[in-house]
Design goal:
290 residues; alpha/beta; Rossmann fold; eight-stranded mixed β-sheet; Haloacetate dehalogenase
Length: 290
């Protein structure tokens, strides 16, 4: 797993990030989703490494990265904080300008990076995500039924108690498509109470401070200035909830987003790594990030 990559723990300010980095060429930052760690990217990263310098951190609150103390306004776990971590991490590794890919909860963090640090982000790729504010603005009984966990995770204390009673049953997954090392890393993470709390704080920030930041972006007319690739898993439910996915992202992009289906379930980096890496390579080639 991560053949030829270096494992580091890098202080980016108020947290230390566990990060793997390797390869050569124009840099790419990969941000994972919930409840994964950076190892979800291992098969994608190895495919990109001959063409790109690939950087894969555990986001703050997740895996073996730092766990800030929760705050009443949830700002220590905001996507703005995650984006600032990513920008500083890439600077410390010598990358002033880079592409970023975010999947699931990493998607809003990657979007925030492109909006808060436009001079740093050369290209933005997103998987299985729409802006948090779009979810909440359009929320109806279908969304509340299918993605009920967003609102359960926002409750104090009870989600931690429910999940930690049996994390393996709660989160599921199988070692067959993750690989044994990735599976072991994932299991250690979801059984760690500090990680579970950090992951839930991510969702609590989403319903509060993250939404406020995105609403401010919309009011100010801020949009993604760099090229944008949007991928979705064909066996997941995102397109069922948002058949106008392309229209949503047109509202957030100054250009025309590239829309690419990935033939997999939700965890596309594990289930279809070749397809994900191929879509990223084609996108980066098209926009000149080579």
């Amino acid at each position: 797993m991560f053949t030829g990559f270096t494992l580091d723990h890098i202080d980016v300010g108020d947290v230390v990030l566990r990060v793997r980095h390797g390869g050569e060429g124009p840099p790419v930052l990969l941000l994972h989703g919930h409840p994964r760690t950076h190892v979800t990217w291992h098969a994608v990263a190895e495919r990109l490494a001959p063409f790109h310098t690939v950087v894969c951190p555990d986001m703050r609150g997740y895996g073996q990265s730092g766990k800030p103390e929760p705050a009443d306004d949830h700002s220590p776990h905001s996507k703005r904080a995650v984006a600032a971590d990513g920008a500083e991490l890439m600077r410390l590794l010598g990358h002033e300008r880079f592409a970023v890919m975010g999947h699931d909860r990493g998607g809003p963090a990657a979007l925030r990076l492109a909006l808060d640090h436009p001079e740093r982000v050369a290209a933005l790729a997103l998987g299985d995500t729409v802006p948090i504010s779009e979810h909440l603005r359009r929320c109806d009984e279908r969304f509340a039924t299918a993605w009920w966990h967003w609102f359960f995770f926002a409750q104090p204390d009870k989600p931690e108690r429910a999940i930690l009673a049996d994390p393996a049953a709660w989160y599921g997954g199988t070692p067959e498509h993750m690989g044994p090392e990735a599976w072991d890393d994932y299991q250690k993470a979801i059984h760690d109470p500090a990680v579970v709390r950090g992951m839930l704080e991510d969702y609590r920030a989403g319903l509060t401070v993250d939404r406020a930041h995105e609403d401010a972006d919309r009011a100010a007319g801020r949009r993604v200035d760099c090229p944008l690739l949007v991928m979705w898993s064909t066996e997941d439910d995102l397109l069922e909830l948002y058949p106008d996915l392309d229209a949503i992202w047109r509202e957030w992009s100054a250009g025309e987003p590239r829309m690419v289906p990935i033939h997999s379930g939700h965890h596309m980096a594990e289930e279809a790594p070749g397809e994900v890496a191929g879509a990223l390579r084609a996108f980066f080639t098209e926009v000149g990030w080579v």
